């Protein structure tokens, strides 16, 4: 039961990041985690503070994946919060493992249905990008497989790419997972308006 509640909390975070349903997903997360800690029982607020700090750092890692240290620190704090709550290492690992498996399944389902980190990318686009994002049919160049471009934003896995001297930004989807800003990419496939790229 505890693992399921914890899993629902993590699912809420994933849905909030990957889909437009931010408010509903955030509500699911808060309710599920509140029920989890209430069900397990608390003697102090320290475990909740550690768990919350860890979860926030992990979420921040999604926004700034190059740093790495944020995610590692977040995982450590989250584990400490859970262990201090439960007091049993094996149950902590069991609950967390169940939650991760359930959440991974939901994330995979969402990605296969076209959801991505587009919402995140909109929040973290650099202000120094003064290039045009609205492209008329006359302005767009023909993008074909094999073309090289440069990532103008981090691809997580969606983001913006420019091709050649063209200053227009094109929405693309990385098939290599996260790609840092400034990386040279190659167009893997073009299907309608959907452009998938990979690292060179």
UniProtKB/TrEMBL annotation:
Its membrane topology: Multi-pass membrane protein
Domain spans labelled NfeD integral membrane: 3-108
Compartments, record wording: Membrane
Gene3D superfamilies: Nucleic acid-binding proteins (2.40.50.140)
Keywords: Membrane, Transmembrane, Transmembrane helix
Ranges where the NfeD-like C-terminal domain occurs: 146-199
Transmembrane segments: 34-60, 67-86, 92-111
Protein name (record): NfeD-like C-terminal domain-containing protein
Organism expressing this protein natively: Alkalibacterium iburiense
């Amino acid at each position: 039961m505890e693992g399921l509640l914890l899993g629902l909390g993590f699912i809420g975070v994933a849905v909030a990041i990957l889909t437009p349903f931010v408010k509903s997903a955030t509500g699911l997360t808060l309710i599920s985690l509140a029920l989890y800690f209430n069900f397990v029982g608390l003697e102090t607020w320290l475990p909740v503070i550690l768990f919350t700090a860890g979860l926030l750092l992990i979420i921040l890692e999604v926004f700034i994946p190059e740093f790495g240290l944020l995610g590692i620190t977040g995982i450590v704090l989250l584990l400490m919060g859970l262990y201090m709550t439960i007091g049993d290492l094996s149950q902590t690992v069991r609950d967390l493992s169940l939650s991760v498996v359930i959440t991974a399944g939901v994330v995979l389902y969402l990605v296969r249905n076209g959801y991505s980190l587009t919402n995140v990318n909109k929040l973290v686009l650099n202000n120094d990008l003064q290039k045009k994002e609205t492209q008329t049919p006359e302005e767009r160049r023909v993008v074909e497989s094999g073309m090289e471009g440069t990532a103008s934003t981090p691809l997580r896995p969606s983001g913006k790419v420019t091709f050649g001297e063209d200053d227009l930004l094109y929405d693309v989807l990385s098939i290599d997972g996260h790609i840092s800003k400034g990386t040279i990419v190659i167009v893997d496939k073009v299907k309608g308006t959907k452009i998938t790229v990979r690292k060179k």
